Task: structure prediction
Amino acid sequence: DSPFDKGRRVITFNNILKYNSFPLAAIISEMLALGEEEMRCPVEIEFAANLERPDGQRFLNILQIRPIISMNDSEKFDWDTIDTSNALLYAENALGIGGISDVADIIYLRPEAFDNMQTEEMAREILALNNKLRDQKRGYVLIGPGRWGTRDEMTGIPVLWSDISMAKVIVEQGLEGYPLDASLGSHFFHNVTSMNVGYFAIAHQTAKPFVNMDMLKDME
Result:
């Protein structure tokens, strides 16, 4: 904890967490307890703190609070009964467990045609397709680059939940020159967990996780 000690230098939060220069741990503990009491389930929070204000005051603000809901904590899924040799996609970074059977279609953005300057137009096209499939009561897999639901149009497709409400599985795909910062459903967390929507993140040029684009192109 001293710059005069021998050894490698590391950055820590010991001044806050060990010496309590700002009661961060106590504040977070109270926020988690209050959130769990009000939502009747465990919660996760995002927060930001400003400890370096010119006037000497220090503030902590809650940015988001979400329930942690698991509908299938005790569910056992035997992958030995599933043939994955001809899988369309495979991910090791995912939310959800179990099988989803009511899938009829796939909506995906073609990587070779993707332009991150046109993400708003893409969102409008996806909304139109979602509405069409909603009228037909057809669930689908949604595959696209970057973060679904982001407000930053340069990092993903800025859809609302109502734009993709019929999606049963949502896939975030990394592309060349468009690295994936997986949201894992953070923008639609409550909808994803409560409605048992699958959520996958597949980074670009990884060894095992993949999306078989050739198989997609050959489909009707």
Notes: The two ends are 63 Å apart (CA to CA).
